[in-house]
Inverse folding.
């Protein structure tokens, strides 16, 4: 199986690459230390079964949506290998979480499970919101304006507007209040996070 690593720590990246080399089941297809447009292109073009990411690469405000961001560029399982503490909600978004003290056997077991789970999940239909559209919807439901959303995800306001247009087309809902109710009913947010 092929793995793509996104880790700012070369020591962590080389360590996990060494574990995979020793076991022989996983092959590292690429290692990057951050996500820029160049790395996004690499991620789109690599045929990895799993992407292992250290969530520290994301700004603090965007960390809770890290998996969804990476899922925009690949259909691979997205596995967290955090070098910092992550709260349970942030950890839950990932297909698996590798701990710094996990044994090589545990790492391999977690990766196998994550990859098989992602491969077995049904493909989405054309009216289902993409991961990025869900991220934008969550921000809209929380009361953020287009500029704040654009700054949070490092995208242009025009891209935010395009995502919002797609959300409206797919859901048939045109108002912020309606989108907030949609997000609540689909468990994208909880009532305590709505302003």
């Amino acid at each position: 199986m092929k793995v793509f690593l996104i880790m700012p720590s070369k020591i962590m990246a080389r360590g996990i690459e060494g574990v995979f080399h020793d076991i022989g089941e996983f092959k590292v297809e690429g290692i990057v230390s951050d996500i820029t447009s160049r790395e996004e292109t690499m991620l789109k073009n690599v045929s990895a079964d799993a992407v292992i990411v250290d969530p520290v690469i994301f700004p603090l405000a965007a960390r809770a949506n890290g998996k969804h961001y990476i899922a925009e560029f690949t259909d691979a399982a997205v596995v967290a290998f955090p070098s910092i503490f992550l709260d349970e909600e942030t950890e839950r978004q990932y297909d698996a979480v590798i701990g710094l003290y996990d044994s090589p056997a545990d790492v391999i077991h977690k990766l196998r499970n994550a990859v098989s789970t992602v491969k077995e999940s049904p493909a989405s239909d054309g009216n289902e919101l993409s991961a990025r559209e869900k991220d934008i919807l969550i921000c809209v439901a929380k009361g953020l304006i287009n500029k704040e959303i654009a700054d949070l995800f490092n995208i242009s306001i025009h891209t935010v507007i395009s995502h919002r247009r797609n959300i409206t087309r797919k859901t048939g809902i045109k108002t912020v209040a309606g989108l907030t109710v949609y997000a609540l009913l689909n468990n994208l947010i909880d009532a305590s996070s709505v302003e």
Notes: The mean pLDDT is 85. The first strand starts at residue 2 and ends at 6.
